[in-house]
């Protein structure tokens, strides 16, 4: 039972896993089992998402996917729409020498998405600090057929950016722990903003999370060959979103800038909040999702890219 009325407005999203099947084959399989494409996700009708390739939206109230045979074969991955944005925005390379990091990987939805975009080529280093969640990650990687992933049960902050192993890493996805305040359709996240939590307590909690999130971005920025970092949260709080991005840009002293809107889901309407980002960049380069309004959970995506060299000494 879902306590939040906004949850009813979110379809059951399913990503077709290109590592195991093609979109055409997945659609044929669904059709053979009585599903059909329609204009709305209702009953046995599903919709192809306009923003995320390979994403299908089903009727959440009437579609139980966790026992679906295609899901059990790893051909379908249950992943909310907004949670597909970070890997798309990171746009990882897909060649034999590609080196990419997923810094906070479990349960592995975005890791398997990255592996699919990389067509299982190159190496995707995936870190997960928590032992139990790491096991879930391993199960998910195996089920999805993500064979280019080197998963490690390790704290990303303890990974040495100057270790030769990571010398060629060009892209990092950073989706760290957050308050989860944007998630309205999962009971394990409904603890955020609990009525009994005082404003003061909440602010303190958000402050701690923001300091951790900033340290993760600062660490990612230290990898010498990295040119692109996507930072995302499933929070609706500016304290974990625009304000963290602002602090990260200021701390980088001009070495990093925000990737322009045309590389960051340009057709998605809801963008960042300029007042919260301030004068360090254009909030139109950021993506936000609002639960109940955007047919997905609350979410935030930002993309940092290394500032072009000025011809003078490196900043
Ligand atoms: N990206 C995942 C996905 O799409 O399936 C969800 C990631 S979840 C929001 C954040 C994860 O980061 C948690 O599993 C948490 O245990 C892990 N984590 C937090 N701090 C970490 C750190 N310093 N190093 C590695 N993993 C960390």
From TrEMBL:
Q: Has keyword RNA-binding? A: yes
User: This protein's superkingdom?
Assistant: Eukaryota
Question: What is one GO biological process annotated to this record?
Answer: rRNA base methylation
Coiled coil: which residue ranges? none
Q: Which residues bind S-adenosyl-L-methionine?
A: 128, 155, 175
Chain ranges of the SAM-dependent MTase RsmB/NOP-type domain: 2-307
Cellular component, GO, one term: nucleolus
The record's comment on protein family reads:
Belongs to the class I-like SAM-binding methyltransferase superfamily. RsmB/NOP family.
Q: What is the name attached to this protein's record? A: S-adenosyl-L-methionine-dependent methyltransferase
Q: Which organism is it from?
A: Exidia glandulosa HHB12029
Give the shown range, full length included.
128 to 442 of 495
């Amino acid at each position: 039972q879902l306590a939040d009325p906004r949850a009813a407005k979110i379809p059951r999203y399913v990503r077709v896993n290109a590592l195991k099947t093609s979109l055409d084959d997945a659609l044929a399989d669904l059709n053979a089992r009585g599903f059909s494409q329609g204009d709305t996700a209702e009953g046995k009708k599903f919709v192809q998402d306009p923003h995320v390739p390979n994403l299908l939206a089903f009727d959440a109230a009437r579609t139980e996917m966790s026992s679906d045979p295609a899901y059990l074969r790893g051909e379908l991955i249950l992943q909310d729409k907004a949670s597909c944005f970070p890997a798309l925005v990171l746009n990882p390379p897909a060649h034999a020498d590609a080196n990419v990091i997923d810094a906070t990987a479990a349960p592995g939805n975005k890791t398997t998405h990255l592996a699919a975009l990389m067509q299982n080529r190159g190496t995707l280093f995936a870190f997960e600090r928590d032992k139990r969640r790491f096991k879930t990650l391993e199960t998910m990687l195996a089920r999805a057929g993500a064979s280019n992933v080197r998963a490690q049960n390790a704290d990303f902050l303890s990974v040495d950016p100057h270790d030769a192993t990571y010398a060629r890493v060009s892209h990092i996805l950073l989706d760290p722990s957050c308050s989860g305040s944007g998630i309205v359709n999962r009971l394990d996240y409904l603890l955020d903003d609990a009525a009994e939590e005082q404003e003061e307590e909440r602010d303190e909690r958000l402050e701690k999370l923001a300091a951790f999130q900033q340290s993760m971005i600062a660490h990612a920025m230290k990898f010498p060959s990295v040119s692109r970092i996507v930072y995302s949260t499933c929070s609706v709080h500016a304290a974990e979103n625009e304000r963290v991005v602002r602090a990260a840009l200021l701390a980088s002293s001009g070495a990093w800038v925000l990737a322009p809107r045309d590389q960051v889901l340009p057709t998605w309407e809801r963008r960042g909040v300029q007042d919260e980002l301030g004068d360090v960049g254009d909030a139109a380069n950021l993506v936000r999702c609002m639960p109940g309004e955007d047919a997905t959970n609350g979410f935030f995506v930002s993309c940092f890219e290394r500032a072009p060299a000025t011809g003078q000494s490196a900043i």
